[in-house]
Amino acid sequence: MKSVQSTSIPHCRHSLAFLCLTALPLLLIQACGMAGTDDPPLLSPESSESPASSPKRIKIPTAAANEIIVECERHIRAWETARADVKTNLDRDTLQALEMAFGSYVMKELTAISDIAITGPERSRSIASTSLGFTRNPTVLPILLNNLSDSSDQVVANTLYGLAMLGDPNIPIGNLQSILQRSSASSGLVRNAAFAMLRLAQIRSNSEPPLPPSEDWNNTMMALLDRHEPNIRAQGATGLGYLKASNALFRLADLLSGDPESRVRFAAAFALGELRSMDA
Q1: What is the rounded CA–CA span in Å between residue 185 and residue 191?
Q2: 3-state DSSP of the chain
Q3: pLDDT of the chain along its 280 residues, tens only?
Q4: Pairwise CA distance, residues 164 & 147, whole Å
Q5: Which are the contacts of 267, defined by CB distance < 8 A and separation ≥ 6?
Q6: Which residues lie below 8 Å from residue 172, measured CB to CB, with a gap of 6+?
Q7: How far, in Å, CA of 277 to CA of 19, rounded?
Q8: Model-level pTM?
Q9: Cα angle at 77 between 72 and 80, to 5 degrees?
Q10: Per-residue CA distances from 274 to 2, 159, 180, 205, 238 (Å)
């Protein structure tokens, strides 16, 4: 396959595997037998982006497509295993090396994986959608945004994970809002959306030049504080800290003093500390 040059996106000061104060949702590819958690993923076809700015479309023979998906799955399994066992700086370096190796592989096969993400069967679309995020290449963003409307919740959830890995701070908040506002959205789907928002909030906080405050981002993140799942409330609180959302001050103070879950109180304390740093 023809190689495509990666365009870098500003990286945050922490690896994805070490987002502050919150447990990361495990990537679920149920059909692949990944390690279990109750967090699912999602995606969808047909990009609205012009061919000039999107990866070139070609028809991939089925056998070749299957080989690529198997290799992507192998990389994802290795990354998940390493991420679950991070204890030292050496472990972090190993994890980052795996991320870079996987990203390089996906860039090498970008044309094929992009086509699979759009036209492949459900299982393959799911894996391809997550894999595209490891490129950190903004040209894949139209495909991932398109796949958020896929009919399969599994594809959509994996797409959210791909968006979190992609880490583009310019992802439109409306695309994530629409998922959080779905009356039929499963807890796992909301969990992956919350994770993507937390990842992007962290990246927005470290962007150079700084991105302007966004009321939409603040309000969408604040809505997570009303969820019954502790890890989602913790992600919402942490994200509000990264966003320096001063309008969340009283909500965060209430969480710190009254939430029954220690992880949520810890996240609220972190967020309040971030808000106090604005006055320093």
Answers
A1: 10
A2: CCCCCCCCCCCCCCCHHHCCCCCCCCCCCHHHCCCCCCCCCECCCCCCCCCCCCCCCCCCCHHHHHHHHHHHHHHHHHHHHHHCCCCCHHHHHHHHHHHHHHHHHHHHCHHHHHHHHHHCCHHHHHHHHHHHHCCCCHHHHHHHHHHCCCCCHHHHHHHHHHHHHHCCCCCCHHHHHHHHCCCCCCHHHHHHHHHHHHHHHHHHHCCCCCCCCCHHHHHHHHHHHHCCCHHHHHHHHHHHHHCCCHHHHHHHHHHHHHCCCHHHHHHHHHHHHHHHHCCC
A3: 433 343 443 344 343 333 333 333 445 443 333 323 333 333 333 333 333 355 555 667 889 999 999 999 999 999 999 999 999 999 999 999 999 999 999 999 999 999 999 999 999 999 999 999 999 999 999 999 999 999 999 999 999 999 999 999 888 888 888 888 888 888 888 889 999 999 999 998 888 887 887 888 899 999 999 999 999 999 999 999 999 999 999 999 999 999 999 999 999 999 999 998 876 5
A4: 14
A5: 21, 22, 233, 234, 235, 237, 238, 241, 255
A6: 145
A7: 19
A8: 0.77
A9: 125
A10: 45, 30, 25, 11, 9
| HEC secondary structure over 32-101 | HCCCCCCCCCECCCCCCCCCCCCCCCCCCCHHHHHHHHHHHHHHHHHHHHHHCCCCCHHHHHHHHHHHHH
Q: Tokens 């992956």 belong to which residue?
A: 192
Q: Which two tokens stand for residue 15?
A: 């690896």
Q: In the Cβ-directed half-sphere of 55, how many Cα atoms lie within 13 Å? A: 33
